[in-house]
Structure formats: C-alpha cells, structure tokens
Amino acid sequence: MTAALWPETRHSQELWPEQATSADRTAHGPVRPWLETVSPRMRWDWRHLVYVQDALDTVTPGETKRLMLFLPPRHGKSELATVRYPVYRLERNPEERVIIGAYNATLARKFSRKARRIARERLALSDDRTAVEDWETASGGGIRAVGVGDGITGQGGNLIVIDDPVKSREEAESETYRERVWEWYTDDLYTRLEPGGAIVLIMTRWHEDDLAGRILASDDANSWDVINLPAFAQQDDPLGREPGEALCPDRFDEAALNDIKRVTVGFEALYQGNPVPKAGEMFDPAWFEVVGAAPAIAERVRGWDKAATAGGGDWTVGCRISKNPRGVYYIEHVERGQWGPGDADQQIRNTAILDGPRVHHHGEQEPGAAGKRDAAAFVRLLAGFSVATEPSSGDKVTRARPLASQAQAGNVKIVAGPWVHAFLEELRQFPRGKNDDQVDAASIAFNKLAGMIVRDLNPANWAKAYA
Predict the structure, then answer these.
(1) What is the DSSP letter of 248?
(2) Contacts of 405 (CB under 8 A, 6+ apart)
(3) Which of 172, 318, 345, 457 is deepest in the core (most CB within 10 A)?
(4) What is the pLDDT of residue 454?
(5) Which residues, including other chains, have CB under 8 Å from residue 175's CB and lie 6 or more apart?
(6) Contact 92, 59 (CB under 8 A)
(7) Which residues lie closer than 8 Å to 12 by C-beta, 6 or more apart?
(8) Residue 349 CA to its chain's centroid (Å)
(9) Are 304 and 362 contacting, i.e. CB atoms less than 8 angstroms apart?
C-alpha cells in the first residue's frame, strides 16, 4: 500500500520485541513495535488492525493454531497478516518454513515478492534459492507461494497463510471451483503442515460454502478461532463499536460504505462477513406462513429433481405443492434422500403411491440423448399415475423467480412437518447455498401448477374446504 492509502502518523521510537518491557508487551503485543519499525508510514494503530495483531500474537507462540480472519476489502488485512507477519516470524526464527496460498499463483507471488522485499533489508537470504515463488533465508527457512491447485510436494510449512482463495463471484458460485479449493486445501495444503504448525485463513466471504464455510461445517470447526470484523458494526461488536459504526472511518466512513452498499450486490457477504443474510438473498423464510393443513379442494403437483449419483452431494427431491381455487399455494411435503438409482426409483414409486392418484408428478428433461432416456424411464417408473416431463429451460434462479414472487406477495403457505426447517434454510441460502435441490423441485411443481386451473368449481365445496 502507498502512503496515500495509509497516511503517515506520529511514531515514537518503539522498542524491538526482544527489548520491550512487560508493560510494552501487554499494551502493544510483540508484533506491534516490529510493524511500526519496518513500515513506519503505514497506520498500525487502527483498532481493527490492533485487534488482528493481538490475534496473531497468540499464533506466534502456538497458543492459537487455527485462525480465520474475515474483514472487508481494502482494510489492510493482507498487508498485515499475509505480507508482514510471515517476515516477522522468519526474523524470530529464520529456519521456519512459510507457505502462502491464494486464488492463483500470480496473487500468491505478489504477496511473496512484497515479503521478500522487506526480508532483504532485515535478514540474511540464501543465494541459492531466490525465486519469488520459492525463496529461502540463509538458515534454510523461507516462503513458498502457491495458487489454488498448485502442488507443494516435498515441502512442509510451520505457518500456512491462505489469503482469499476465491477470486470472483463467478468462482464462488461454481460448485466445481468450490470443490477444487476444498480438495486443494485438504489434499495439498493441510498435508504440508508441520507438527505444531499454524494455519491462518484470511478472507472476504463470497459464499456460504466457500472454504471458510466448508471448514466451519466440518468436524474440524472447533479447532478454529474465528474473527469477523464487519464494515458496519453489529450487536456485540468485538471492537466495542455501536451498531452501524464504520470499521475504519479514516479509510471508509459510513457515507463511503453506504455508497459501496448501493452498488454492490454482495455487500452482506463481502463487507459484513455474512455470505447469506438472515432474510435470504432471494427468499425470506418470513414470507411463508406455516399452517396445519392444506385445503382439500386443490390441484396437486409433486415436482421431482433427481440426483445424478448416490452420495455425490446432491439429493433426489420430490416437493408436493397444492393450489386452491383462490390461487393460494401450499407447500405440503418434501421427500428427499441421497439414494442410488435403484433406491431412488423405489422411493419415487412409494411416494407416488402414498400421494394417491389425484397428484400429478412432474420432472424435467435434461438436454441430450441421456436426458431423453432418463425422462422416458421416469415416466415408465410412474406408470398408472399422472406423470409428465418437459425440457428444462433457463437456469435455476430464473426457474425459482415465479415462486419467489408469489411467496413475497403472501400467496405461498407451508404445511407444518419435520422437513420444514431444512426446506426453509435451503430457500434462505439460495442461490449461494451448497444445495439447491429442494428449491429446484419446488420450482418445478410451482411452475406446473401456475398454469393449471382447479377443476372443482363448486362453490359449496369451497365453503366446506375453508370451513
């Protein structure tokens, strides 16, 4: 960062960590005087950076071995934790090995180049290994810079710093890319960690299933300390800010943040560290009134979204929705499981039997010859029931919009059942959540129902149904 971005401020002659008194260490932490000595034109006294410094001071002696830092863009997290903290560690112990990972090798090398520039002024570096992506100290320690997917065979790390493994919204929304990041982390990076080593993950959040989200949903979640410093303070702010107060007014005051918020679709994720707002990006669970039962007089469709493989992360889902004569929709039931092809067919057939003959079953035909074969097999499976398929059109978000519009207008209710919580949570996370099979099945059923007319037009029966 330049002096323009990081205004010069007053600096006393700070003591080096080795010379600092107990009071100095308590007040500033060991990394603080080092930072102000190495980069005196940068601001290290902002409260959010002091908070991060305190967290890193627990990583250095091994008190904290897994640390997540969520801060908004352009607030100094990388300059502190990715560029300078590794050099600080090397200066304390030049035999340490540090691995810096990022969404691609170019960014990782940029961090490494900045770190090497500082290290050259403070450490004896090796003349044998000097490449920006892999350089060493004269004592054998050093930094290796890698991008997502790069192998790290033959080298371990006492400290692994992962800084923004996701480049863009497009990558964040790609399940294939998220899986690639996860495999890189578990199979490459994590296996390089030396005994007693530490991992620091620095991110602006993009998606609920990004690397941080997936770690926190795993069995390893309890191993991590998580610090989230949102751009706008929320209740119980770690820094003691009042709700709505800006994180760093000297850089981005509340007016500047509101300007960004007006044009940034992902503000809640990128700037607040919350990849899915409580109200949801497309669906608000509060729109759905939960009722005890649906009216008897109604048309009913169960939409089916079939998983390609068993245990592959996707679910086979059948969502039954009814539409009464007044044009109100009721989400009545969801059947879902991660079944293999044979078990899935049996579950679909059993569900149709339980639904009874008046429920229409509808599926989508995927493109290509394989899609036609699957659609034909689906129709044969439900012989004796009302069943049809039609070619899928548009993406999942487009298909879900009609359901979202009617739900927002209060025209969609949900029948109480043990499946409701998981269903509403998937709606809330859509389209950034890990799964969207229930949403897709509901969209299939809803869009089919929307064009159907309720067949029972006898007002007397209506009265009975709503009595």
Answers:
(1) B
(2) none
(3) 318
(4) 58
(5) 209, 313, 434
(6) no
(7) none
(8) 36
(9) yes
- Residue 412 φ then ψ, to 5°: -125, 125
Find all residues with CB under 8 Å of 336, minimum gap 6, and list them: 315, 316, 317, 318, 419, 437, 438, 441
The residue written with tokens 């050099």 in the block is 87
- List, in order of start, the domains of the chain with CATH numbers: 46-270 (3.40.50), 285-450 (3.30.420.240)
Alpha-carbon gap, residue 173 to 326, rounded angstroms = 37
3-class secondary-structure state, position 259: helix
pLDDT of residue 29: 47
d(CA 281, CA 242): 25
* Residues of the chain with confidence (pLDDT) below 70: 1-29, 309-313, 453-467
Judged by DSSP in three states, 172 sits in helix
Residue 357: asked if its preceding bond is cis (omega within 30°), the reply is no
Task: State the DSSP H helix or E strand holding residue 291, giving kind and residue range, or none if neither.
Answer: strand 289-291
Per residue in 358-395, is it b (16+ CB within 10 Å) or e — as a string? ebbbbbbbbeeeeeeebbeebeebbeebebebeebeee
Residue carrying the six token digits 């969207």: 436
Asked if 437 and 315 touch (Cβ cutoff 8 Å), the reply is yes
Task: Please work out, in degrees rounded to the nearest 5, the angle formed at the alpha carbon of residue 207 by the alpha carbons of 267 and 271.
Answer: 25
Res 411: pLDDT = 97
Sheet holding 142-147, edge to edge: 125-131, 134-137, 142-147, 97-102, 157-163, 193-203, 66-70, 225-228
